[in-house]
Specification:
Elements: H1 10-19, H2 26-38, E1 42-45, H3 52-63, E2 67-71, H4 78-81, E3 83-85, H5 87-99, H6 105-112, E4 118-120, H7 122-128, E5 133-137, H8 144-156, E6 158-161, E7 165-168, E8 174-179, H9 187-192, E9 194-197, H10 203-213, H11 219-233, H12 243-255, H13 263-268, H14 270-273, H15 277-285
Parallel strand pairs: 1-8, 1-9, 2-5, 5-8
Antiparallel strand pairs: 3-4, 6-7
Helix pairs in contact: 1-2, 10-11, 10-12
Length: 296
């Protein structure tokens, strides 16, 4: 299937995202549209579970663009993000050359750094694939040094391989950088990007997501799920449920044949909506009042 073109406006972009099940707020659609038009990275912050990573996947699916994901972590360096040399193949090449009696050491050394021995990582793959989506996930987990490198790479959408020269993207990929805000990201990187704070969806929007995923869900059950999740998000939990947890909870309740949430169903499915023991203990001590309407 051919890759889709960028829609003419952000409303059309929002409709394209909805076709793949991502119901974005108007401000998010506008930010994605402008990021695509201006060829600027989009920096998305928000609590875990609000759909930052899913947004990159939705753009990839909606426009049939390949997605390259770089998961950030402490100690991540350039070789993990850009490229690495295939030492085993280089060694094999040298051994073959020795076997056939080659003596031209200088020529042989230059061959070892031929492009065929280069293993591209996520960023280089995205720069060389047009069009594409590059997801740099949870940048707040990486070190300051990696941030500085990333800023340089995204400034020109180019990287330099000393042995081969500069590799520049013919067309910049659509870049989404996400952060759960576990630490502050440097202003220099944010200035390079457009910025979007992503909230938990409104009840109406989350209802649309649940009903798309589970068209046959009973309306009273969907109402209870949405109300309970809203209460949990306002109750100061260690980890408030995100959209993924809402969907897992709905899926679990339907698997049990539930048509409404009772204390029994709440107890049986608690692990699908709350993933911290302390949060679960708090709900249990409150006799599931956060999950089940009073008198149910």
């Amino acid at each position: 299937m051919a890759a889709h073109q960028i829609p003419a406006d952000y409303e059309a972009l929002g409709s394209a995202l909805e076709t793949v099940g991502y119901f974005a707020e108007e401000s998010v659609c506008a930010s994605v549209f402008l990021s695509l038009r201006l060829q600027r990275p989009l920096f998305c912050e928000g609590e875990p579970g609000v759909g930052k990573t899913a947004l990159a996947h939705a753009v990839s699916e909606a426009f049939n663009w390949p997605l390259f994901r770089l998961q950030c972590y402490e100690g991540l360096d350039e070789s993990d993000a850009l490229y690495a040399w295939d030492f085993s193949r280089q060694l094999l090449h040298m051994r073959v050359a020795e076997t056939v009696g080659r003596k031209d050491a200088e020529s042989l050394e230059s061959e070892l750094y031929d492009r065929r021995f280069l293993q591209p990582r996520a960023i280089l793959k995205a720069f060389e694939t047009t069009p594409s989506v590059l997801l740099i996930d949870e940048i707040d987990r990486a070190d300051d040094e990696f941030e500085a490198f990333l800023l340089e790479a995204l400034s020109e959408y180019a990287i330099t391989v000393p042995q081969l020269g500069t590799i520049k993207a013919a067309v910049p990929p659509f870049v989404i950088v996400t952060s759960n805000r576990t630490r502050d990201v440097h202003d220099a990187l944010k200035r390079r990007c457009l910025y979007q704070w992503i909230e938990h969806p409104s009840i109406a929007r989350e209802r649309a997501i649940i009903e798309r995923c589970f068209p046959a869900i009973p309306v009273p059950l969907a109402d209870q799920i949405l109300a309970a999740v809203a209460r949990l998000r306002g109750a100061g939990m260690l980890k408030a449920p995100g959209i993924a947890e809402s969907l897992d909870w709905a899926r679990s309740l339907l698997a049990l044949g539930a048509t409404e949430i009772t204390p029994r169903e709440a107890a049986l499915t608690l692990g699908t909506v709350l993933k911290y023991h302390e949060d679960q203990a708090r709900v249990i001590s409150g006799k599931y009042s956060l999950l089940v309407p009073q008198g149910a």
